[in-house]
Amino acid sequence: MAIVISAMPKWRFDASQVALPEDWDIRFINPSTDEELILACKEADYLLVPASTPEINANVLRNMTHIKLIQSVGAGFDRIDTQTAATLKIPVANVPGKNAKSVAEFTIGLMIALQRQILVADREIKAGRYQEIRKILFKQGLSDIEGSKVGLIGLGSISQHVAKILNVLGASVSYYTVRKKLPATEAQLQVSYKSLEALLAESDIVSLHVPLDDTTRGLIGHRELELMSPGSLLINTARGEVVDQTALAHMLETGRIGGAAIDVFAPEPPGPENPLLNLSPAARERLVVTPHIAGVTVGAMRKMLQASLENIARAISGQPPVNIVNM
């Protein structure tokens, strides 16, 4: 009987109505140290992990060379040292695209929440200041998606869905990637390519959709935020490490950018010292934060869990697993 260690808690399977294979020995763990993870995997054949935790570093991997597959439940795998895993011949697989529509919907929702000041209005009305906040918002002016210039950094599955929705809503959409897409793809998505500098300077909204790697860590720092158009908005549903949080906090304090919506932090969960959690009241008005939930609807989680279990089943039956990211 195959032994599968799952760092994804059982309640996530139950909540998503995903049945666990009865012919597997599945053991659920919640390790807080490398040693706990290594010990838990001592007899394991397969390891199933959330995309964001736990960290599987070189030390951990060198102590679990018997693992036949590490399966990430999600598209991300930045918490896994894939290079060391490849050297040790441990395949790492992900589940790309299963929650792309969910993240895209959430991204659009964050854009609208910032443009229409939804959270500010909600709070003020509940505090008994209906007339006051209505007048303030009318005088301030609220923006539409229609007519907005939206710049997408990254053009993978999620970003492409975002572009499609934005086009329906009447936005002008540009994108930046290291490798420019083919003209046919640009025409299909109705997007235009811009350099990173031009996209930042010319967009009303900048939305991040890149994986975390050495090329994207700290991609949006003080220099890039300074390049953004005054009053523009930043959306991050990618990874917290893509943005310099201290620089972003400074820009929110000065009002250099109009607002930011952040679904991801570095680290997660954020500590009390995180600069984005220590803003002045005025700067706090310009920030919307959520706890890394953009892609974890019941439907999306069901798809990711089912695909992950299917891939492990494929490996158990002797078939090659799919979506290997390190070999």
TrEMBL record:
<protein>
    <submittedName>
        <fullName>D-3-phosphoglycerate dehydrogenase</fullName>
    </submittedName>
</protein>
<dbReference type="GO" id="GO:0047545">
    <property type="term" value="F:(S)-2-hydroxyglutarate dehydrogenase activity"/>
</dbReference>
<keyword id="KW-0520">NAD</keyword>
<dbReference type="GO" id="GO:0051287">
    <property type="term" value="F:NAD binding"/>
</dbReference>
<dbReference type="InterPro" id="IPR029753">
    <property type="entry name" value="D-isomer_DH_CS"/>
</dbReference>
<keyword id="KW-0560">Oxidoreductase</keyword>
<dbReference type="InterPro" id="IPR050418">
    <property type="entry name" value="D-iso_2-hydroxyacid_DH_PdxB"/>
</dbReference>
<comment type="similarity">
    <text>Belongs to the D-isomer specific 2-hydroxyacid dehydrogenase family.</text>
</comment>
<dbReference type="GO" id="GO:0006564">
    <property type="term" value="P:L-serine biosynthetic process"/>
</dbReference>
<dbReference type="Pfam" id="PF02826">
    <property type="entry name" value="2-Hacid_dh_C"/>
</dbReference>
<dbReference type="GO" id="GO:0004617">
    <property type="term" value="F:phosphoglycerate dehydrogenase activity"/>
</dbReference>
<dbReference type="Pfam" id="PF00389">
    <property type="entry name" value="2-Hacid_dh"/>
</dbReference>
<dbReference type="InterPro" id="IPR006140">
    <property type="entry name" value="D-isomer_DH_NAD-bd"/>
</dbReference>
<feature type="domain" description="D-isomer specific 2-hydroxyacid dehydrogenase NAD-binding">
    <location>
        <begin position="108"/>
        <end position="294"/>
    </location>
</feature>
<dbReference type="InterPro" id="IPR006139">
    <property type="entry name" value="D-isomer_2_OHA_DH_cat_dom"/>
</dbReference>
<dbReference type="InterPro" id="IPR036291">
    <property type="entry name" value="NAD(P)-bd_dom_sf"/>
</dbReference>
<feature type="domain" description="D-isomer specific 2-hydroxyacid dehydrogenase catalytic">
    <location>
        <begin position="24"/>
        <end position="326"/>
    </location>
</feature>
